[in-house]
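Q: I'm writing a short explainer about SRPBCC family protein for a general audience and would like to include a description of its predicted shape. Could you first generate the structure from this sequence?
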Amino acid sequence: MKSIQVNQEFNAPLETVFEALSKHATYNDVFAPVQVVRIKDSADPERPDGVGSVRKMGIGPVKPLKEQITLLEVNERIEYKIIKNPLIKHHLGIIEFKSIAANKTLVSYTIELQARAPFVSQLILAQLKLAITLGFKKLAKTLA
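A: Of course. Here's the predicted structure. Afterward I'll give you a sentence or two in plain language.
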C-alpha cells in the first residue's frame, strides 16, 4: 500500500485550525478549482460535517468522488474514506492536529491509497501531495 504525508504548521490556535479543516466547505477554498459539497449530514446536529457525513468532490457538475467521515476526535484527528469508487481499492485519509505553541498548530495529513490498476496509486498520490501542500500553504495564510 502506498501513502503520502504532508505536514504544515499554522500560526493559529489548534481550535481554529481544527474548526476550519473539519468543515467540508473549507476545502472549496483550499483545493480550488475542486469543489466539495456535503450530500449527507452526520447524525450529530451540532456537527453536520462529522462522522457519517458524506461529501462529493469534483469540478463543475462532475463530482465523481464521494468521501465519508469515519472518525472525528475534536481538536485531535479526522479520518475519512472514499466510498463507491470502482477505480480505488483502498483510500484512507487521516488528518492529525497537534498544538506546538499557544498560537501554533501542526497538521499532519496522511493518505493511504491502493488503486485497482497497477502504477495508478503513485500517480494519484503525487497529484494529491502537490494539491494538499499548496492548499495548506494557502489556508495557513488565511488563518494567520
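A: For your explainer, you could say: The mean pLDDT is 94.
Q: Perfect, that's easy to follow.
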